[in-house]
């Protein structure tokens, strides 16, 4: 019996100089929702296969709630990309099932080249990754050899191999501030909104690549102001990949993990959340007495009708996890020649954040290096 998947239309205005963001292709690949019986059977099958294959699940906050819940039920983790990287590196399992987008699987493979890294769908990618092709980015770096290259985690293995430092949204401010304090001028890629936020917060000299996340780029400040008027007691939580005028309306700005913490610790019962709506599952699970509203993306100037959900994250499903574990398909492959170089900026980030977390000095972890 053939399954017909209805194509969900996503209109997206392509940024100048960016790669092709095939959002319509991504939405066409979103798996159909299984029935209750199918869902139970798939979960049982995955639990069995995880034990048989010495495997563990790592799921991002933006993927389907089924994948988040099953990861935690089976000894895995639901987290942001920084914790995903740490967990995958340190876990004893020889197979990691990464539910997220391709750069997350590649990062896991770079840190654990001896392990098998599986994904529910290898075509699940990221507009920031697509919009920063290595040839163009490398040429951009060559034009500015005096700058230290800092790239966001949402990039390909090849781009990481061209960088001096890797950062995630949870550690970018600390690392850029440390680089600035040692006199570094920075070349930043790929998200221009996150880069501009970091520049405003740190005062660092930053040259920006012109990239954006198709979800966060579509949040609208004028629509958010209207929603705030409807819910005057709600606090606004914003991911820094959002435009500056949206960030300006925030009560708290931060990574997915920081948004979770703010929702748990702030003195409020209502929140408006400007990030991918996949976060709503964990926010509501951890805060059952609180109310969460999605920040609006619609409006007169809106170009994307995504309703704040990444089409590539939506490609992850239980059937893809089960199929990958059963057949060994959908394994991430990274060119062995670039793994050592790509690992350097990741290791620097992990060492820096570990020192920071443990109250140890970080100054010695920022070498006086030039561009990559």
* Spatial sequence of strands, sheet with the most strands: 2-1-3-4
Whole-number mean pLDDT: 89
What is the beta-strand fraction? 5-15%
- Cα shape: globular
Secondary-structure element series: HHEHEHEHEHHEHEHEHEHEHEHEHEHH
- Share of helix, binned: 40-55%
- The helix count comes to 16
Total number of strands: 12
Structural class, from helix and strand content?
alpha/beta
Radius of gyration, in Å, reads 20 Å
Uncertain parts: 1-20, 299-306
SSE blueprint and pairings:
Layout lengths: L22 H6 L7 H17 L2 E6 L4 H9 L3 E3 L1 H10 L4 E5 L2 H10 L4 E3 L8 H4 L3 H9 L5 E5 L4 H5 L3 E3 L4 H10 L4 E4 L2 H11 L3 E3 L12 H10 L4 E4 L5 H4 L4 E2 L2 H10 L4 E5 L4 H8 L4 E4 L23 H10 L11 H19 L15
Parallel strand pairs: 1-2, 1-3, 3-4, 5-6, 5-7, 7-8, 9-10, 9-11, 11-12
Helix pairs in contact: 2-15, 4-5, 5-16, 13-14
Describe this structure in words.
It is a single chain. With 372 residues, this protein is α/β, with parallel strands linked by helices. Helices cover 41% and strands 13% of the residues. The chain has 16 helices and 12 strands. The chain has helices at residues 23-28, 36-52, 65-73, 81-90, 102-111, 127-130, 134-142, 157-161, 172-181, 192-202, 221-230, 244-247, 256-265, 279-286, 318-327, 339-357; strands spanning 55-60, 77-79, 95-99, 116-118, 148-152, 165-167, 186-189, 206-208, 235-238, 252-253, 270-274, 291-294. The chain has a 4-stranded parallel β-sheet, sandwiched between helices. A 4-stranded parallel β-sheet has the order 6-5-7-8. Helix 12 links the parallel strand 9 (235-238) and strand 10. Helix 2 (36-52) packs parallel to helix 15, helix 5 (102-111) crosses helix 16 and helix 13 runs parallel beside helix 14 (279-286). The longest helix has 19 residues, at 339-357. Mean pLDDT is 89; it is low at 1-20 and 299-306.
